[in-house]
Give the backbone structure.
Amino acid sequence: MGLIIFLFSALLAINMGASGFSVAFAPSFGSNILKRYHAISLYTLCVILGGVLIGPRVGETLMRKITYFPLGLSSGVIIISSCGLAMFFSNLLKVPQSTSFVTVASFIGTGLYFGSVDWWMVFKIFFFALFFSICSLVLTILIKRKIYPPNQKNIIFYEKFFIHRRKFKKFVVLHDMYAGFAIGTNNVANVVAPLVISLQFVPHLAFLSIGPLFGIGAFLLGERMIQTVSKNIVPIGEFSASIVSVITATFVIVASLLSLPTPYVQFTTFSLIGISCIKDGFRCTFGKSIIQRVLSAWILVPLFTTFCSFGLHWFFI
């Protein structure tokens, strides 16, 4: 049974790794700075560091603060299975999905079955997720308006940018590494929490073991979904890439320090939507089919995960 649980956890980590890679390294991929293998290697290293250093804070919230009921082996298996099915479904649709929302939804479904959900904590998680998503959108629009389109007021910026463009590419890579670290601080806990519940793993050892699987997911599935984020929503250049990386990764790290599971995918996508709004206009941006498909998936997939988790508990326990 222990081997089966670990295999399910590995499948979940691989799917989450693909989704995380699609947003963490969308800037450097979208601006054609990094090759695929270099991006995956850097992503894996940074995810491991973020998971070991800050990830346990988020893991504690998932394991002990969403539901009061002491969860055992069976619940851990069901939580992992529900998350894995939801993420695999999202990856097949080529839609980046919030691994944190999927995991929280699975814990909510479990808590509903046992009649033990801390709704204040659930509200807190979703409130800060919505707040940081809106902040990502607004901050990106405010910054982008200052530099786009080129005019006499900002022409000096463009002159300096093109003079130092080669150096600036290195900063974009650093920004993406910062983003990969942020993924590790939050998303690795989504796999570690049910694994610790099921097999009583030592948390820090679990974080160290699961982190590399995110890199495998990036290698196997990440390239298809990174197209959705970095190409299909809006093509981005080096400076726009740095705006996205710094804003979204910072909000994720702040949420992790607050011990809150949070949706990196939403933050990054909203930041990219902000860039699209400046370039293409609000009506054109929100009229894009890819935007509508992504927003629909963000609502439907977590709901599916909640019902899946509840239903599997009802059927097997």
